[in-house]
Design a protein that fits this description.
Number of domains: 3
CATH superfamily of the largest domain: DNA Polymerase III, subunit A, domain 2
Helix content: 10-25%
Strand order of the largest sheet: 6-2-3-4-18-17-16-10-14
Structural class: alpha+beta
Radius of gyration: 25 Å
Number of strands: 27
CATH topology of the largest domain: DNA Polymerase III, Chain A, domain 2
Strand content: 35-45%
Shape: elongated
């Protein structure tokens, strides 16, 4: 194998692919990045049996070939090289990386032992990449981090002829976001569960444009530009989140600017006990944000708010409340019934695309 490639192009391809490298590989070869040089360019791949990444970069290939190199070392080396063309040349069990006056010789790993990467499943539709990334960022905080309950660590994707809906829950809150998309076969409905942490990581690095989503028996894929990612699916069982997100269930509605409310919650909780509550006391024309009362002290802040319904004093876990408020730009509506029942955070409008149900805390 011998090729020449632009330094920035290779650095981008290697850095993106290296995100799929496992921290504790189950086999030594999984710590490597697979480089395939062919007439159409250089393909860089990584695989850990749960997720795979591959991307093709433009390169001047003098001698086609295939080599497996230590992934994290390669990423650090390429990142540190000057902004000049890079030459990679295989000789025996070493790859020589030359860039300007710098030269590195990396020992190869046994490429024949590297597992075959899964093929992307059949596409089910396309969606704007940046809108998908924003939607995943809105719902991902509600996915559980408890790996002993895999079902709760995922983001559920529901797809029909008009909408792609993402939803997640950790039993204390339920977040959902609707997106418009273009299904491949409009009559088909799809419901799958993708690991939330992986989906969030994948969508953060999507290039601008359309992303094609594929779904098979056990795999999902996202393809955008020259980048392809596959991820193993979780058990698709999920709660009936739509029934819990009905606007008709709430008799009290408050509307307030999200950014000042977020800032006020962060300020007053500076004196709150660890794991303590933040209280929102709504009355006509205002909301008082309160926290503390233990050994440290108390804090409160008043903000203007519109209230439709009876006055209410309701408390939340601060982090859960902030995650929900962060998903809304501009004005936020909060639907409530009693201080002991969950509240619904939504965008203004009759059919909000983003809905976040959060449990209320009982306070003495």
């Amino acid at each position: 194998m011998k090729l020449t490639v632009d330094r920035d192009v290779l650095a981008d391809a290697v850095a993106w692919t290296a995100h799929a490298l496992p921290n504790r590989p189950s086999a030594p070869v999984l710590a490597g990045l697979l480089l395939d040089a062919a007439a159409d360019g250089l393909t860089v791949s990584a695989f850990d049996y749960d997720t795979s990444r591959r991307t093709t970069a433009a390169a001047d290939v003098a001698e086609p070939g295939r080599v497996l190199l230590p992934g994290r070392v390669l990423a650090e080396v390429v990142k540190a090289l000057p902004a000049k063309p890079i030459t990679l040349a295989l000789s025996g069990t070493e790859v020589t990386i030359t860039c300007g006056n710098a030269e590195f010789n990396l020992l190869t790993m046994p490429a024949d032992d590297y597992p075959r990467l899964p093929e992307p499943p059949e596409p089910i539709g396309t969606v704007d990449a940046q809108q998908l990334a924003a939607a995943v960022a809105q719902v991902a905080p509600a996915a559980s981090r408890d790996e002993t309950l895999p079902m709760l660590t995922g983001i559920h994707l529901d797809a029909d002829a008009e909408h792609l809906t993402l939803a997640a829950t950790d039993r204390y809150r339920i977040a959902a976001r609707d997106l418009t998309w273009q299904p491949t076969t409009p009559g088909d409905n799809v419901g799958v569960m993708i690991p939330g942490r992986l989906l969030h990581d994948i969508t953060k690095s999507l290039p601008a444009g359309e992303v094609t989503i594929g779904v098979g028996d056990s795999l999902a894929s996202l393809q955008a530009s020259s980048r392809t990612t596959t991820v193993r699916l979780l058990d698709p069982q999920f709660i009936d989140y739509r029934a819990r997100h009905s606007l008709d269930d709430y008799q009290i509605w408050a509307e307030v600017d999200a950014t000042p409310l977020i800032a006020a919650v962060k300020r007053v909780t500076l004196v709150g006990d660890r794991g303590g509550a933040v209280r929102l006391v709504f009355s006509d024309g205002q909301v008082i944000v309160q926290a503390g009362g233990g050994d440290t002290g108390r804090a409160s802040e008043m903000l203007p708010a519109d209230l439709d319904g009876a006055d209410i004093d309701i408390a939340f876990q601060p982090g859960f409340l902030l995650d929900g408020l962060a998903g809304v730009d501009g004005r936020v509506r909060i639907g409530m019934t009693t201080p002991a029942k969950p509240a619904l955070i939504v965008e203004p409008g009759d059919d909000p695309a983003y809905r976040y149900l959060v449990m209320a805390l009982r306070t003495s």
